[in-house]
Amino acid sequence: MPLLDKLLDKSIPELKHLFLDRGRTVPKGLLEALESDSRQGAQHLAKRIRERWRSNRSEGQRLHSLLRFEIELWTEGYTTVAGVDEAGMAPLAGPVVAGAVILPQHYKLRGLNDSKKILDRETREDLAKQIKRDAVCWSFGFAEVEEIDRLNIYHAGLLAMQRAFQALSCLPDFVLVDARRIPNCPSPQRGIIHGDALSASIAAASIIAKTTRDAHMLALDSLYSGYGFASHKGYPTPEHCRALKELGALPIHRRSFARVREVLELEPVQTQLFDDKQTDAAAEAMAAPVQ
User: Fold this and answer.
1) Domain ranges of the chain
2) Helix ranges, 109-232 (H)
3) Which of 35, 67, 95, 260 could disulfide-pair with 46, CB 3.0 to 4.6 Å?
4) Is pLDDT larger for residue 149 or for residue 39?
5) Contacts of 115 (CB under 8 A, 6+ apart)
6) Is the overall model pTM greater than 0.90, yes or no?
7) CATH of 78-287, one of 2.40.37.10, 3.30.420.10, 2.40.160.60, 3.40.50.1820
8) pLDDT for the residue numbered 47
9) What is the reported pLDDT for 274?
10) Each residue of 199-210: pLDDT tens digit?
């Protein structure tokens, strides 16, 4: 009996398991046979298979577009391209964390995207695990609360990026960075505005940075109960702001941030972000070797 006849002898749930749940390749003629079948379940299955095909085609096109900066660099002879991004610029508490990733050439991972667009925690963590398994190399870097308060959050973010880059086990030929440029970077680099949504390498780095920081804030939640760090990760949610006012500021709260300064009854920080002293301190910190 031909393969198609054997398949058509199976029940609709069996066919669904094979070609939707398990994602088996649909043999020639099966889809047309299901569409001409008088059973409503068969026609519905055919419709879902076609929808899956369209979705896969659309996702493939999206992932190819996400590689456009990398493809241009590979064509120019840059073999290893790193993406670098940070997470945690806006929170009132905890460090800023950067991720750095070198992906294999022409790497496509279904669902890879800017971490901010991936709302489901488990999906982010699954993607992070897969990226770590598949990457040529990956790393992360922290800038602690004391450094945020001393340098300001902008320069602390750059410091975290520099540390993530320095932690890579292999030196990339080129670096793509989300919106900025890494100080004292020995490799050529390019800053891309909204790069975490436009470059696969930067998107992967954003996922590493986000999941690493979330895990760190989860650990801090066990040290500082009552503040809800496990849920809001230090961001200025209503829950966090209430806890900050009722329980007071912790050592992990950023004292250069206005909401924390209000609770501590401190004067507002200087509005000029980049005065000469701050710039000099930031340059010194970034030039220093990572401990």
Assistant:
1) 3-65, 78-287
2) 121-134, 145-151, 153-166, 195-198, 200-223, 229-232
3) 35
4) 149
5) 87, 124, 196, 203, 206, 207, 209, 210, 211
6) no
7) 3.30.420.10
8) 82
9) 45
10) 999 999 999 999
